């Protein structure tokens, strides 16, 4: 059972990449499966629709998966899962999860892997794409012998994510440059820890390369995942998207039809000087590691 687990900070392009992969036969993008319990079963988050447009519990695919849980009170199960996730699978737990797996984390993983297994019976016989982006969860999954986990780490210039977080969206609150960049550093450093322990099951790509050379980067991802398909995207970045069954994620996931993958460079001219300087200073060591220039006007 193969799982492509996407990690990294938010606004990195994981939704579009997952949905591109979803177009391959036998590959299913499950979205941010970590939130199946909060947004799906409890409908208590801000992003409770399946990618097909239905509420999670009304979606034909997810309702059939939920029916296999064998629990008379799925809301009780959801609250228990969320409690265990908070106790052992936050970003700060990443190094600990590489070292050991306590019982409550094993319980979460058992249920998560059971969901993966049900998805393989419903169209994901070749691979499940899980874009949850929790490095500690990726770290814990690496220890499992019943799932072939490939960790795909996506990074994006932190000044672009700072720009994106200047304004709130329907499903997420705005964030200050310092807060956005602190999270960017934390999630990416934690993902690097996972990469160091993944023994060949880790690949890092950049959002900028994905949007400038989509067919080439998707081909790299497919080789890494052990999938021999042709990338379902043209050199120019055109891809035709059908229905998906993603949990949570960017609302763009609800769209279908022809999409053009292209760079969004507005931040280079529209992000004010102070947020740019704050982000650059806080992210400096990783900027160099990921090949991003110090000056916002220069293209990496």
UniProtKB/TrEMBL annotation:
GO annotation terms (biological process): N-acetylglucosamine metabolic process; sulfur compound metabolic process
Tagged with keyword Iron-sulfur: no
Gene3D superfamilies: P-loop containing nucleotide triphosphate hydrolases
Residues of the signal peptide: none
Single GO MF descriptor: N-acetylglucosamine 6-O-sulfotransferase activity
Keywords: Transferase
Organism annotation: Micromonospora endophytica
Pfam families found in the cross-reference section: Sulfotransfer_3
UniProt key word RNA-binding: no
Name recorded for this polypeptide: Sulfotransferase family protein
Organism phylogeny: Bacteria, Bacillati, Actinomycetota, Actinomycetes, Micromonosporales
């Amino acid at each position: 059972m193969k799982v492509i687990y996407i990690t990294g900070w938010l606004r990195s392009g994981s939704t579009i990449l997952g949905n591109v992969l979803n177009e391959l036969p036998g590959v299913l993008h499950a979205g941010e499966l970590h939130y199946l319990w909060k947004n799906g079963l409890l409908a208590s988050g801000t992003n409770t629709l399946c990618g097909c447009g239905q509420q999670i519990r009304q979606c034909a695919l997810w309702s059939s998966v939920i029916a296999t849980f064998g629990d008379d009170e799925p809301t009780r199960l959801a609250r228990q899962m969320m409690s265990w996730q908070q106790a052992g699978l936050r970003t700060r737990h990443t190094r600990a999860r590489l070292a050991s797996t306590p019982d409550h984390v094993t319980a979460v993983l058992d249920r998560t892997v059971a969901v993966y297994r049900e998805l393989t019976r419903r169209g994901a016989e070749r691979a499940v794409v899980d874009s949850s982006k929790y490095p500690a969860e990726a770290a814990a999954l690496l220890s499992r012998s019943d799932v072939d986990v490939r960790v795909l780490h996506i990074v994006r210039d932190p000044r672009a994510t700072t720009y994106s977080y200047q304004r709130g969206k329907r499903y997420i609150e705005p964030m200050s440059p310092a807060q956005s960049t602190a999270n960017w550093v934390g999630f990416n450093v934690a993902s690097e820890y996972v990469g160091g322990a993944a023994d060949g099951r880790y690949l890092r790509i950049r959002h900028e390369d994905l949007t400038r050379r989509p067919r080439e980067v998707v081909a790299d991802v497919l080789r890494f995942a052990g999938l021999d398909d042709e990338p379902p995207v043209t050199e120019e970045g055109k891809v035709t998207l059908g229905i998906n069954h993603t949990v949570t994620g960017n609302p763009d996931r609800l769209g279908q039809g022809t999409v053009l993958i292209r760079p969004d460079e507005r931040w280079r001219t529209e992000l004010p000087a102070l947020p740019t300087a704050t982000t650059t200073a806080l992210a400096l060591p990783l900027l160099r590691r990921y090949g991003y220039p110090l000056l916002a006007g220069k293209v990496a």
